[in-house]
Automatic annotation (TrEMBL):
This is Glycosyltransferase family 4 protein. Residues 178-342 form the Glycosyl transferase family domain. The lineage of its organism: Bacteria, Pseudomonadati, Campylobacterota, Epsilonproteobacteria, Campylobacterales. InterPro entries: Glyco_trans_1 (IPR001296), Glyco_trans_4-like_N (IPR028098), Glycosyltransferase_grp1 (IPR050194). Pfam families: Glyco_transf_4, Glycos_transf_1. Signal peptide: none annotated. Residues 18-171 form the Glycosyltransferase subfamily 4-like N-terminal domain.
Length: 377
């Protein structure tokens, strides 16, 4: 069937921020790199400075609901029904593709998008719809074993495979001169920097990191700086907690960072940490966690919670460590080690970088995707 023609369909697409958008963009680039003829459908967005919208054909549809879906449906109807279509998520992109009569629909699954949530009438209807779409899809590509297991627990007959994500190992690389990077970012030169970069939502568990800091003595805290990059609706509450725990003076609230500067904050760091919680009722989870790979590719060891798809992104004691949910005592142990044995963290960072080069680049990811499509479509 495959005739090297791909239609990629996702409303979560650059210049939108976030992991799914970056993943979609990377998949398109990998197919183009392999010589495929690729077109994309996404919604209209304000094009920000620095973003190029002319690297491949993108058909932008109106952003308003109904008009967005209807215009997408009309575009899809114009393509041959055997066109390979990859959708960013199952709803509504894959549903619209199937309703437009397409047979070769491949769906990307990320974790929270396929969770059932609370037992409500709305979620019951969504579950029926999800079963219909995923069962009709030629293949569901899961970003982690957690995501695949979540699908198979609900719908055992869905044809799925796991393609753990990759990272751009050239863009995210270790710093040649960490001091100059920190100076450019206005970060302290003489402290060990612990970094979290993500949206600041409660389930991302920044509070667990603050509680770990609060367990440390003053001498250890003086050797550390916790740098929080990102924005979100939990920010003000988090700042209040930092003040209550008396650790706010050890935190650098960096705020939003441009995509171009993202590699630098990893390069400036000594340890990355993100202890996301799985909240099934709220459909919140880290389906994989691209940030863990970005840190490790930058030569920075990563700590994550043993929740969701994070164990696929971090191999315990091979470039990072897994801690149990909300275990701020274990986290404090690692922070203290960082302050007194920084060389051990440098060595773990070198292992992290090597693991990425061996098995977790976008090249590795695309090989798995191409193989899966060849075998299933």
């Amino acid at each position: 069937m495959i005739n090297n023609k791909l239609l990629f369909f996702s409303y979560d697409f650059p210049p939108v921020e976030g992991g799914i958008s970056r993943l979609c963009d990377e998949i398109v680039k990998q197919f183009i790199h392999k010589g495929w003829d690729v077109e994309a459908i996404s919604e209209e967005r304000e094009i920000e400075k620095g973003y190029r919208d002319d690297l491949y054909p993108i058909q932008r549809v109106p952003s308003k609901r109904f008009f967005k879906e209807f215009e997408s449906y009309k575009i899809l109807k114009r393509y041959p029904k055997d066109t390979l279509i990859i959708t960013g998520v199952w709803h509504p992109e894959a549903l619209i593709s199937i309703l437009a009569g397409h047979k070769n629909v491949v769906v990307l699954a990320h974790g929270n998008d396929i969770m059932q949530g609370k037992k409500t009438f709305k979620n019951f209807i969504l579950s029926l719809l999800r079963k219909y779409v995923l069962s009709k899809a030629k293949l569901v590509i899961c970003n982690s074993h957690y995501t695949q297991n979540t699908i198979l627990e609900q719908f055992p007959c869905v044809n799925s495979t796991v393609c753990t994500l990759g990272v751009d190992e050239e863009r995210f690389s270790p710093a040649e001169d960490k001091k100059s990077v920190r100076e450019a970012l206005n970060l302290p030169i003489d402290k060990k920097i612990i970094l979290t970069t993500s949206r600041i939502d409660k389930y991302k568990a920044h509070d667990t990191v603050l509680k770990a800091l609060a367990l440390l003595d003053e001498k250890t805290l003086d050797a550390l700086c916790y740098c929080i990059v990102g924005r979100g609706n939990y920010l003000e509450e988090l700042k209040k907690l930092a003040s209550q725990l008396n650790v706010d003076q050890y935190i650098h609230w960096y705020g939003f960072i441009e995509e171009d500067d993202l590699p630098k904050v990893y390069q400036a760091s000594d340890l990355f940490v993100l202890c996301t919680r799985e909240e099934k009722d709220q459909k919140r989870v880290e389906g994989f966690g691209l940030v863990f790979l970005e840190a490790q590719s930058s030569g920075v060891p990563a700590i994550g919670s043993n929740q969701g798809g994070i164990p696929d992104a971090i191999k315990h004691q091979n470039g990072g460590w897994l801690v149990e949910r909300d275990d701020h005592h274990q986290l404090a142990h690692y922070f203290k080690q960082l302050a007194v044995e920084p060389q051990a963290f440098k060595e773990e960072g070198m292992k992290a970088r090597q693991r990425v080069l061996n098995e977790a680049t976008w090249g590795h990811f695309s090989e798995k995707v191409f193989k899966a499509i060849e075998e299933n479509v």
